[in-house]
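Q: Give me a protein?
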Amino acid sequence: MTRVLIAPDKFKGSMTAAQVGAAVAAGIRQVLPHASITVVPVADGGDGTVAAALAAGFEAIPVVAAGPTGEPVDTIYARRDDLAVIELADVSGLLRLPSGKFAPMSATSRGTGEVIAAAVGAGCRRIVLGIGGSAGTDGGAGLVRALGARLLDADGAEIADGGAALTEVATIDLTALHKRMADIDITVACDVDNPLTGPRGAATVYGPQKGADETQVSALDTALTHWADVVATTTGADRRDTAGAGAAGGVGFAAVAILNGTLAPGIELVLDLAGFAHHLTGTDLVVTGEGTLDAQTLHGKAPTGVATAAQAAGIPVIAVCGRNTLPKTRLQSAGFTAAYSLSEIEPDINRCFTEGEDLLKRLGTHIAEHHLPQTPIATEPPAKHATH
């Protein structure tokens, strides 16, 4: 029996990873109705990480926590045994900003810390934290405060939330945090290598994406520098230049410098959670994908992680996407046998969004016809729609 493993990431703004997988599977079944098809949604550590864990059999645990501007939001974490998978984007992310209004100086990661605290309070001893999509640049200060850290100004008063307020930190009291987080293992899904501060730091590189203008970027970098100084004095180690410290507005820094966490590639963590290696056994073809295949895809994104694992097992990999900007040579060197995009068969971008599932079914049919039978592999995509 033909065995196909479909392991896509989401098509952002259009379809979830599960929807992508189901559509491709439906197309393959039109040609090979008796094929054994397994859909394993994946993510690279950003939004979609908890969904991937739930698809792998984790339990959804609801939590109410502070959003990036302090308003309560309903979120969930995924749990299996004593392991919790938590997604920063769903509580402290850009999508949680009220009315989409940026708050570059005051947005906080506190809510993510509250979710971690809830998981620890419920008995979880291991935390996997996906940190993509942060709305703030607070150096992870809000997160550690939610776990018991006290950030005090020169008068001994608690400072305000947000990155701008970090300039006021004079002392840090970690007593309560250390008590709560003793023996808790934290692994952070991180796919960037930026340090906390400087020209490649959290404020300079990512601040503008969160609404910070040039003056605010400079102020935030100064605030993060001061924060790193005080943390180094408190802990006895300076971790500001750790690769990934600048991830998620500096949450990566707080994770390693204060929580003694470990940073790891997001897709590798998700593949492990999903039992991907087990699913590869006996598989004839792997299909993966994401909304856009571009240069970023080749640097830690989900499809490349899937392709690397499948290639190591000697299994061919096909990518599907909304749009592809990578030449065939780069795709092949990354481990992809071929790639097919919705835009190749439907030039109307709006229809690619509104009719994505139907178009993916067509790509699934094409993949079944040209990559699963024992016939020479075709490289041309299915024919385009007729003129509309």
